[in-house]
Structures are given as C-alpha cells and as structure tokens.
Amino acid sequence: MLRRMIRNFGSTLCLLAAAGGLAIDQDRLDEAALSAGTFTIDRIDREAYSEPAPVLDYRQREKFLRGRHHFNQKWVVFPSLGGDWGLGPTFIADRCSGCHVGGGRGDTPKSADQQLLSVLVRISIPGQDEHGGPKPHPNYGDQIQTQGLMGQDRDATYLGERVPPEANLYLDWQETPTTFADGEKIMLRRPRLRVEKLNFGPLGAEVMYSLRIAQPTFGLGLLEAVSEADILALAEKQKAQGVNGHPNYVWDGIGKRVALGRFGWKSNQPSIRQQIAAALHGDIGVTSPLFDKENCPPVQKDCAYQPPGNQPELVEADWDELEFWTQALAVPARRNVGDPDFKSGARLFAEAKCAACHVPEMKAGALPGLAQIQGQVFHAYTDLLLHDMGEELADGRPDFKAGPRDWRTPPLWGLGLSQTVSGSTAMLHDGRARNVIEAILWHGGEAETAREAFRNMPKADREALLKFLSSI
What we know:
Elements lengths: L1 H17 L21 E2 L16 H15 L2 E2 L7 E2 L4 E2 L27 E10 L5 E2 L11 E2 L19 E12 L5 E12 L11 E6 L6 H5 L3 H12 L8 E5 L4 E5 L10 H13 L16 H5 L10 H13 L2 E2 L7 H12 L10 E2 L13 E2 L7 E3 L17 E3 L9 H5 L13 H6 L6 H8 L3 H13 L1
Parallel strand pairs: 1-13, 2-3
Antiparallel strand pairs: 4-7, 5-6, 5-10, 8-9, 11-12, 14-15, 16-17
Helix pairs in contact: 1-2, 2-7, 5-7, 8-12
C-alpha cells in the first residue's frame, strides 16, 4: 500500500508539472510534413520523441503522463525510497530511460575502458527453447548482466546479500577504409566484444553473441496497429522486386500462441506489452505477471537469495500505463519538405531501391484502447519484415524464424533529430555506424544493390539523399 501511495504521488507531481505544456500547433504544418497523420507533432527539440499524440482526450493524456512517469522512474531495492521496488538482483540499467535517453536510440561507449550501457549483449547456445526461440546459456541466461546489487545502497540501507555482476563488457573497434566511385574515402568500423571477469564460469566455445543497441520508442503504436495481412502483402510485393522480405513468427507469452513478430532488431517480440515486460525483466531485473521469476540462473545462488520488491514487481496498472504511453507517443514532423534537395533525395531513395524495404507509407488498423489510431497513414520507412543483410552484418545467432544474417528493417522516421534528443547518431544493431553514410555502406545481402547505387552516386546526389533522410 505504501509503495502504491508513493508511486501515485510521483505520478501526480508528473501530471502537475506537465499541465499546460502539451498543446501542439499542428495546423501550421504543411500536409507533406505530416509523418503520422494526426499523431504528428511539430517539435525539433529534446522532447521530440516524448510527446503524446495531439488527438488524445483528457483521460488518455492523464494515462499517458503516468506512463511517462514509469518510463523515467528509477527502480530501487526494497526497502529503499526514491523509486519503485524491484531492481535486480542483476541488471544493466535502473530505469527505461537509462538506455532509451529521451525515448531515443542508445550509444556506444566513448572509450575502450568504458563498459556498455545502452548496448546489451544477447547470448545463447545451439538449440532452441521450448517455444522455438534461442536457447539460453545455463549459467548466464539469454543476456549478460553487467551490474549486480552490492549489499548497500548510497544511504547504507541493508539490501540483502551481495550480488555480483555476471561480467564486464567492453568494445574495441577495428577500422577499414572504403571508397566511393568518385574517389572520396571513408573509414568504416566494426566492434570487437571483450568479455572480462566472468563470475559464473566460462561461457564456452559454442556460445553465440549478439550486440544490440537500444532503439527509439516513439511511433510504436502505429507500427503495432498495422495489420498482419498488410505486412504479409508487403512481403509478396517485394518478391516481384527481387527482395525476400519475410516475417518472423515468435512466441506470444501473453496470448499463449505463436504470433507475428514486429518489434526488436530481429522482430522477436509480437507486441509492445510483451516487449515492455521482457525489457524490464532482462535489462532491469523487474518481475511481472508475464515473467514472474527473478532472473537468476541456478548457479547464481546469491542472486536467488535476494528478497523481491513485490510479487510481482511490475503491477498490472503500471504495465497498462507504460504500454499506453508507448502506443500513444507522437512522431515528429518531417522537415524541409519544400526544399528541392528533399524532393531530389526522395527520388534518389526510390531509384536506389531503398524504398523496397524502407517502405515510405503504411496504414494503421485498429488498436484496442486507442481508437484514434485507426486509419492513420504514416511514413515510418520500414516494412517490419526480416531481410538477409549479408555476412558482414551477421551476428551468427538465430532468433525464432530469423536467421543469423537476418535483421528487421529499422524505421527511419525522426532520424535527423537523434543527436538532439539522445546525443547519439549510432546506427545498425550494434551501433557500428556513426552516421547514415556508414550505415548505408554496411548494407549487404539483399541490400547490396541499394548500397552500390549510393556508392556510385555523384557527391551532390549523395548529399541530397542524406538531406532527405535527415528530414523525414
């Protein structure tokens, strides 16, 4: 009861602080600038990824703001104050916004001696789990946790047994040059994972690793509302273009069935609701009605002895509000739409066949609890399908129907505001690309034709294409 009262008080403060600051002057936007219909906002500042859709009613806006509070709220260990109880026992971050800064993408470490934060490391061993997904490592689970509860918090409150982190993770970089057709050179980099201080035995030679950088959270409600039939129709249409987009089918733990995957780097989550519960459990160590056991493999005895913050730690009401916040996030408007370079870049984007996978337009279907989303035409520049991106980008790790070289087409909308919102321009699943140019030049497999079209463009055309991408 006390925990709920504290949480509600924090939510009330959040509502009061935000009151009066949500009006969006959408009327002055050019129709071509509407990235997401009535879910578009005219913001280019640090809050560009964090605002509610303008069409929410009063009660929906209240629920949205409570969800925003949960997204930014720190998780702590019982009986500490200053957050929700349930952190750990092992974890990567202590709040959602720790990795998704401002609702944006994560970043890679700035130096070789800095540990990973908004880049996590998935692991698995050969075989499949009971639902056909990756098989977790017996001692470390399905991702490596870099933090553990250390017995006392900053206020010297007793927190139970000391729980060590699973390992320390660092990135080293190897750079290689590549050249455009006009002779301009650029350096590309690839990460080399360094694993140190394994606390629960060796990982073994058969373990498979996959670096995953945090992805933006805005606009996901629109993507969730696209019908499965429309996504499968895109896959059929692509076959005529020589592109083999294919869906992932994954385990839906909420519906207890196999379902279309649409979220995550390999489309390995079927819904926003499950994605939230999985991230809280895997990244913060928070249990939920879906994942109700602490993230403690059998060998990690101290982890298992740590008392939980609640049973479960994420209560249904907070889960509902986090889900709604994510579904109702607005999308920043497209910019420079009247500029000749924008129009030229859009044409070059299509001619290079980038638009075959980064589909410019989709339409939302129905989404329970958010009737305003139905029928919205939006421009996310994704198809929510998997594509073979070639051996250079392969992580060697299958994930349900996604093969070792398969990646979901990431949405491109809001790309040009990433530096402003989160301070990061890192791209691709492991953050190896420091900008859009590098990201394109890493494309292989089905995207090799588009990559070579970009490589062979005159510099003026490359710059027009980049201006288009930074404006959508």
